[in-house]
Amino acid sequence: MNVSTFRRFLTLFYLILAPAVYGQTYTVLYNFGSTGCDPIIPVNNGIIAQGRDGSLYSTAGHGCPGNGTAFKISANATMTVLHSFNGGGGDGYAPNSGLTLTGGGTFVGTTEGADFNAGTLFVMTPNGTLTNLDNAFGGTKGVNGGEPIAPPIQGMDGNYYGMTTAGGDVTKCTSGNGGCGVIYRITPSGRYTVIHTFEEGEGANPKDRLLLAADGNLYGTTFYGGTVNSRYIGNGVIFKITPAGQYTGLYVFCSTNCLDGGQPAASLTQGLDGNFYGTTIIGGTHLFSNFFGGTIFKLTPQGVYSVLYNFCSQPNCSDGGQAVANLIQATDGNFYGTTQVGGANGYGVIFQLTPEGQYTVLYNFDFVHGLGPLVPLTQGTNGVLYGDTSGGGSGHSVDCGGNGCGVFYSLDMGLPSYANLETWWGQQGSTIELLGQGFTGTTGVSFNGTPATFQVVSDTYLTAVVPPGATVGLVTVNTPKGALTSNIPFRVLPYVGSFTPTSGPVGTSVTINGSGFTGTIGVGFGDTNPAQFTVNSDSQITATVPSGAKTGPVGVETKTGTAISTQIFTVTQ
Fold first, then answer.
1. CB–CB of 512/556 below 8 Å?
2. CA distance linking residue 114 with residue 93, whole number of Å
3. φ, ψ for residue 38 (rounded to 5)?
4. Paired sense of beta strands 495-500 and 79-84, if any
């Protein structure tokens, strides 16, 4: 469905339009609590995911009847409850996580309760059929982690990675009786493994999901923990962890009397410039109701930290404060986010931040049109921004009290539409899924200019095969309405298929065959010195077995990733 059709559909429904600032249009698409079995009071993390049908999918921890729901908002603004959680009956309760779209078109999410009172991990189809991966969390003394409040994300190895805010080793976490949390890996077949257990000194109690960065590693924040010069600071850290579980602390918050911010409740966002961006809910230079309003920060890959904006810088905190949700970078290159408090009415704001740090309030929540947004924005492939609020609106469920049940809203800034990559990495020959609108009649798909074979499955979903010779760059879909380009570059991962000969002494010339070799920066034989090599083509490398080489697999490292052979090269004397 193209953008103009989408907007015509919206006019067929009763929508509440709020006053716009700077020309954008804010629209309440749905008031939660309007019927007896509605989702209500969506809170963080509440990730909103666009499905292959163009609808928007998420969860709320309350409603229908009281244990929470999974729901979708269709392109014509119809809200449908897909699944009502039954509490202790096996599928859990309090599904505050929101949903992550998987490579198979299904969704993955978590609940915070049931199964050892530690939460559940579930997979859900677009029609609401739910499969619970029982007993993933909790276990003996909660060593598997507990209370996962954000959904896992997929890594480049095909596995899923996530965090829990509690559980783990309670002896290493004195801030609470439930532990500091864990980082876990779960395979597509459901095998669950803890790859890191948090300790207070290195970071504790993460509140959001991990970020898969361009280097293939995972990055995140913790809400508490952290030590500077052997002194416990306790207001959170930024960290990196490899898929194998090697953990590195990158920055400790409140290192400068909290002028740098503290207690990040949101995940990181990697900008197109390679830097990491995020928010904190305390710290900074300006007070709000006796609390500091928090900050927006940037961390370079080299570890240089800087504050881009201090919330509550304007009188009465009219610019907003305490940003719980993470930033997103939209198709115009700017960052967008929300605050849960402050603004002209005290109910929070939607804001824009340029990469250079220029901050603008775009919308002030006013109760009638929502208040207290805790869920991150998402940009639909039509260019429109979407989100929901934890209160306000016209819904009148008795379970919402006097603060309202919340709303699901859109903010149309007139931003460019785009083609969304379900996965933005893959080897040559792999099939990639793209989401968008107006795909019917598509005449071509290309990876950084290299034509690819493709199949249009529906007007909002198509698949394409990564072509031979493809290099890192944007994916373009040529539709009858014009070209749609991916909002992030596609990264072509290297692949080592075979090599000859398979054995030989130091100095042997070895021909390595595979794909994705353009931009190779290193070749290795076993765990040893780097080899001298020549890239003959995107599919072939010639390398010389180096001194000190050991029997083992052959590895090729490119600017986009590393490939390890399944074959073994045997070093002879």
1. yes
2. 7
3. -95, 155
4. unpaired
Q: Tokens 């439930």 map to which residue? A: 178
Cα-based angle 216, 425, 520 (whole degrees, multiple of 5): 70
What helix, strand, coil percent values describe the chain, rounded to 5? 5, 45, 50
CA distance 210 to 547: 40
Contact between 558 and 518 under an 8 Å Cβ cutoff? The reply is yes
192 and 144 in contact (C-beta within 8 Å)? yes
Q: What percent of the chain has pLDDT over 70?
A: 92
Q: Which of 29, 31, 34, 32 is nearest to 12 (CA)?
A: 29
CA proximity to 147, closest of 199, 212, 205, 86: 205
Extended beta strands in 402-494, E state: 407-412, 420-421, 425-427, 431-435, 444-447, 450-452, 454-458, 461-465, 475-479, 482-485, 491-493
Q: How far is CA 522 from CA 55, 406, 500, 518, in A?
A: 43, 53, 18, 11
Return d(Cα 63, Cα 73) in angstroms, integer.
16
Lowest mean pLDDT among 1-15, 226-240, 321-335, 521-535: 1-15
Which CA distances in Å does 454 have to 144, 335, 420, 445, 477? 42, 32, 15, 7, 10
Q: What is the C-alpha separation between 337 and 264, in angstroms, rounded? A: 14
Pairing of the two strands 450-452 and 444-447: antiparallel
Domains and CATH numbers, the chain: 253-364 (2.120.10.30), 420-491 (2.60.40.10), 496-571 (2.60.40.10)
List, for residues 95-150, the tens digit of each pLDDT value: 999 999 987 899 999 998 876 668 889 999 999 999 887 667 766 557 889 899 99
**Rounded CA gap, 388 and 67, in Å?**
19
| Nearest CA-CA partner of 305 in 259, 242, 347 | 259
- The two three-digit tokens of residue 408, written as one number: 């699901």
This prediction has a pTM of: 0.91
Q: Is the pLDDT of residue 7 over 70?
A: no
Q: How confident is the model at residue 198 (pLDDT cuts 50, 70, 90)?
A: very high
CA-nearest of 554, 547, 557, 556 to 568 is 554
Name every residue whose Cβ is closer than 8 Å to that of residue 146 and which is 6 or more positions away in sequence.
Answer: 116, 117, 118, 119, 137, 138, 164, 165, 166, 167, 178, 179, 181
User: Which residue, chain included where needed, has tokens 């609940």?
Assistant: 111
Contacts by residues 400-404 (CB-CB < 8 Å, ≥ 24 positions apart) = 400/33, 400/40, 400/41, 403/371, 403/372, 404/33, 404/367, 404/370, 404/371
Q: Is the peptide bond before 501 cis (omega within 30 degrees of 0)?
A: yes
